[in-house]
Amino acid sequence: MAIEKILFATSEAHPLIKTGGLADVSGSLPAALNALDKDVRIILPAYRTVLDSCRDWKPIAHFELPNVNEPVRLLEGQLPGTTVLTWLVDIPSLFDREGGPYHDANGLDWSDNAQRFTAFCRAIEAIACAQIVPDWQPDIVHCNDWQTGLAAALLSQHGERPGTVFTIHNLAYQGLYPASTFAELQLTENFWSMHALEFHDQLSMIKGGLVFADMLSTVSPTYAREIQTPDFGCGLEALLRHRQDRLLGILNGADYEAWNPLKDPYIEHPYDANKLAGKAQNKAALQTAFALAKKPRTAVIGMISRLAEQKGFDLLLEALPGIMKKNVQLVILGSGDKKIEQGLRDASASYPGKIGLQIGYDEALSHRIEAGADIFLMPSRYEPCGLNQIYSLRYGTIPVVHRTGGLADTVVDLTPISQANHTANGFVFDEANASDLRAAVFRALECYRQKNVWRELVAQAMAVDFSWNSSARRYLDLYRIAYELSH
Ligand code: ADP
Question: How far apart, in whole angstroms, are the C-alpha atoms of residue 192 and residue 204?
Answer without folding.
Answer: 10
